[in-house]
Amino acid sequence: MDHSINKPDRPKYGILAVLMIGAFIAFLNNTLLNIALPSIMIDLDIETATVQWLTTGFMLVNGIMIPTTAYLIQKYSVRHLFIAAMGLFTIGTLIAGIAEIFPILLAGRMLQASGSAIMMPLLMNVMLVSFPVEKRGAAMGVFGLILMAAPAIGPTLSGWIIEHYDWRMLFHFVTPIAIIVLLIGFFLLKDKKEKVDIRLDIFSLLLSSIGFGGILYGFSSAGSKGWASPQVYLTIIVGIISLLSFIVRQTKLERPMLNFSIFKYPMFALSSSITMVLNMAMFSGMLLLPIYVQTIRGISPFDAGLMMLPGALAMALMSPITGRLFDKFGGRVLSIIGLSITTVTTYFFSTLSLDTTYTYLMILHAVRMFGMSMVMMPVSTNGLNQLPARFYPHGTAMNNTLNQVSGAIGTALLVTIMSNRTESTATELAVDATKNIVGEPTKAALADMQQQIAIQAMLEGINFAFFIAAFIAAVALILSFFIKRAKPAEDLNEQKSSYEKVGSAV
């Protein structure tokens, strides 16, 4: 495929800068919203089980769209894809910024996600074709640092905006930047693409959408409807059947959307399992912690964002260091140490109280993110290292898809666990409080008692969810002991060719 830019006198660094700014804005927008969730819950009068769809829905759309990007990149030019991606993202941002009800806000987020899902693989592809092999490392380093800046500044910037303005300002802040980047890309990108005879398997896309969507919707709905609701277990069953049908179909297609045959390589299969499990624990923490510090503790949005800044910086600064350590020691040692730190710190988050200090929360979060920074890249890289070169695109696409979907399902599951635990605890506390009431309480006393019960019940729900997350992280830790330093497996086609040569020689 040819994604080169036609004008040789125009530096590719300018084009890459436009693409990176677009990717940075998309990535930043996702990290901005976590701190805003408590404010959105109050303003739109919705529950935690509902508001978490703004996060899980975004990740789910990414998970569904990412497998189609290989087809899109082969079929269309960089210019057309960039304009489509930024156009979808900008329209979604505009819609979310004027939303007065939750369904409109969620629709805006879905549109943002569809644009973001195209943007990231597109940028990666342009970088690969723009730089020779000997210069790609430095280019990827700059790319990584730019994207790591988004989660570093996102929560703090979001907290400041929410503290001084309405939460909709988060979208109004991004909108003009997105429009400017879209216009610059429209005039700067001039590449053309020859027609390619390739078709998207619509039935596979439909099966994957129903599969991932059904499973996620079932887990998300359990928080408000209960596991016994037909709407919960039927959608999960339909999702599982559709997902299994999708996998079977991919094994029979000549050009599968996702190539599941790569799971026959044990280190790749193991690395995928570990990162999926860890994603389930990690994304839930990003959602539960802001709810705890703002809703229960009453900490301002800006201070809540500032509290998460050291953790984001630790992860960003550790990225290049972890890469060097991986080359020297391999993925097993790093993942065992990192997952041990992650498991212990996640357990400590399950012991939060109404007077846990701000400094303690900041340090504990920073240490937790430090531990996670030692796991993700080494484990994923070790798994990809075992694949033959022809499977690299399939391995990357599979990892991106599974990371998004597992993060979305993990968030939905743990928020459901938190909601159910909160409800059951509130009922128990209300019963106990009723037994201890002497005489007829005043309306003010009754309202104060109900507020205290609600806060205590939510605290118990968050602690229990973190406890389950610690258990999930412990599963990943156990799996990490089976990691071995991976070497590129011999391509089966090359192996067959060598056998044929030996046979003909004999």
Describe the structure.
With 506 residues, the protein is mostly helical. It folds into three domains: 1-197, MFS general substrate transporter like domains (Growth Hormone, Chain: A), CATH 1.20.1250; 199-254; 261-491, MFS general substrate transporter like domains (Growth Hormone, Chain: A, Up-down Bundle), CATH 1.20.1250. It is 81% helix and 0% strand. The protein is built from 17 helices and no strands. It has helices at 12-44, 48-51, 53-75, 78-97, 102-130, 133-164, 169-188, 202-225, 230-252, 266-296, 301-329, 331-348, 358-373, 376-385, 392-436, 443-480, 492-505. Helix 1 (12-44) runs antiparallel to helix 5. It is globular and about 80 Å long.
**Overall helicity:** over 70%
Strand content: under 5%
Query: What is the overall pLDDT average?
Result: 78
Number of DSSP E strands: 0
Characterize the biggest β-sheet.
Answer: none
Indicate the radius of gyration in whole angstroms.
24 Å
Q: What structural class results from the helix and strand content? A: mainly alpha
What is the global morphology? globular
CATH class of the largest domain: Mainly Alpha
The helix/strand order is: HHHHHHHHHHHHHHHHH
Q: Uncertain regions: pLDDT < 50 for 5+ in a row?
A: 1-11, 492-506
Give the helix tally. Answer: 17
CATH superfamily of the largest domain: MFS general substrate transporter like domains
Write the CATH fold name of the largest domain.
Answer: Growth Hormone, Chain: A
Number of domains: 3
Distance N to C terminus: 40 Å
Second rung of CATH, namely the architecture of the largest domain: Up-down Bundle
Protein name: MFS transporter
Membrane topology: Multi-pass membrane protein
Organism: Metabacillus litoralis
Transmembrane segments: 12-33, 53-73, 80-105, 111-131, 138-157, 169-188, 200-219, 231-248, 268-292, 304-321, 333-352, 358-380, 464-483
